[in-house]
Amino acid sequence: MAIFGKTDNAPEPSAAPERTGGAASPATVIGVGARFVGEITGDEDIFIHGRFEGNVRVARRVTVASSGEVKGDIHGRSVLVSGRVHGQIHADERAELAASASVQGNVNAPKVVIAEGAQLQGNVAMSAPDAPPGPVQKKVEEQ
Fold this sequence. Notes:
Order of helices and strands: EEEEEEEEEEEEEEEE
Low-confidence stretches: 1-22
Oligomer: single chain
Mean pLDDT: 82
Shape: globular
Radius of gyration: 20 Å
Largest sheet: 10 strands, parallel
Helix content: under 10%
Structural class: mainly beta
């Protein structure tokens, strides 16, 4: 059965990028011409090529392409920014700002890479993942 000129034998185009090894992984893609307002949560990779207003909280990778813009906080296992982010970035493993990145907000991750040319207006905090707080010093009272 053909719908809108498609035939049953024609393969569906995949919007999800492929991982190494050629196996497609589940992903959510916000296209270049799209504008989305809301909140994204989940357990799959997120690729933002358009505009997104709201918070992103996923257990996997978040990629903001050079054409992408996020107005909100981002939390993911790893975060790669090539576009614009107006909000806080928290990565459980690694945050990377490409040369074309423009970030207005703080970046917090155990590993942070900032390429030459990237713009960052905010602070960077690097801490070991799941690190226990530092030793507590006992206050000695004077007598």
